[in-house]
């Protein structure tokens, strides 16, 4: 949807067509990343609950923690039955314990799953789950002693694997500095520490959020410029063969192609996605949101828009391919900006700002940021009162990290999916509904604003 200048332009028709088928929460962070070393504990807790349905009780047992770690890692036992001295194969904890035992995260033979989770045990399991075990065991005693100086430990606690694992947890940040002053190995692990260690395991394994920074960071525009310059037209022949055939058959008029490796993985209830093509627009949008008192985590997700272009519309440009029916498929470099706001109120306020300063209602309208569109595109995976439901007929492949996103009205989704299946019976299509802004919804229904 790049180069949108006026509603009379045939380019507008072509580019917009690409999409036709196509706490009560508390504040999760109080300062930008440059001012806050660690995410607030509630941020980890909410992430674990929303993404994995994992929530530990106020005083967790070792068994609770074992089950949570197994769930996060997707760990399943594949070998012979583990011979635990205090856990039978028909007990509820056995499957998770056996899976972690097989991976070397639990040592056995005694599990003691019903005992309170202690600080030392939680850290040891987290270190092994985060694949830091080998690093820990390289620590000589003198290095362990140096690392543990920040903890109020009894003298002599510098030998053995537990001390090495604790030292590695400190040096790698798996055990954040906020917990050092009160850390006692044998004390019961607090709910906050247990959730934090689980969150840190996900970070180390690359399963947590990824983002450029916060809107309020001093270097956020530099990072955004670099991310945009590093992106390009995406080429994925296998998936594009399928959806380009659908374009030729006029089953759809466009689609978006994205790389799942850039997915922000934000908390759904606090996040919004905003699509555009113009870098200047993105830079000004960040300034606009900051000027309105909004802060958020920001991730840049590159995407390519593909759409049908008719030859009588003019020159299709260099990123165009002639198809059998005489039309062209044109590819446009675009992006999605993914925001995770501090709270639900800020997420709701986003639309007010866009409607006032980033939505075009007249051809020569003044007082808008550069590159504003007639139908701005932003959407949420959770319900917002003023938004409308549409469908993303998501196409994925087990052989690729690329995804195809053809949007459609809900009532057209079944026909779109059936059409894809007719072209390729093995195609993996997962339709799901999400909430989009009203102007874009009106466009899908044939409206102009």
Automatic annotation (TrEMBL):
This is SLH domain-containing protein. InterPro entries: SLH_dom. Residues 80-140 form the SLH domain. Keywords: Signal. Residues 1-30 form the signal peptide. It comes from Paenibacillus chungangensis.
